[in-house]
Design brief:
Shape: globular
CATH superfamily: Response regulator
Helix content: 25-40%
Distance between the termini: 17 Å
CATH architecture: 3-Layer(aba) Sandwich
């Protein structure tokens, strides 16, 4: 596997079952390197203390204490995150909601429930 094929993804979701499904789904693509965080505070702490930087950030929209859009703003202010693509993963499928995520700067929106067998290819399509 070449460095160009590797895709580093940070996934943040407060639902441990969804995190597990995402982990299994993205493991179908051996070139994806995944880091998981359970909430915005954990993601911010990791981003500030770890040298590892993702190529793509995937965020749940509705999380306690800090929602996905707020976390996106906070992460973008950190070194190594400006200009990175962000994708929201959400059950909020109203057209107005999806439009607001794009307006906030999201590269894409993946709706829950998603197909676990095609998640990796869907994510790659948003990056390429």
């Amino acid at each position: 596997m070449s460095e160009a094929d590797r895709l580093r993804i940070l996934y943040v979701d407060d639902d441990k079952d969804i995190r597990h499904i995402v982990k299994l789904s993205l493991a179908l693509d051996p070139a994806i390197e995944l880091r998981l965080c359970a909430d915005g505070a954990e993601a911010l702490h990791a981003a500030k203390t770890d040298d590892w930087r993702p190529d793509l950030v995937m965020l749940d929209v509705m999380m306690p204490r800090m929602d996905g859009p707020t976390l996106m703003v906070e992460l973008r202010d950190l070194p190594g995150f400006a200009g990175k693509p962000f994708v929201f993963v959400t059950a909020r499928a109203r057209e107005a909601d999806v439009h607001s995520y794009h307006e906030a700067g999201a590269r894409g929106v993946i709706l829950k429930p998603f197909n676990p067998l095609t998640l990796a290819s869907s994510v790659r399509a948003l990056v390429d």
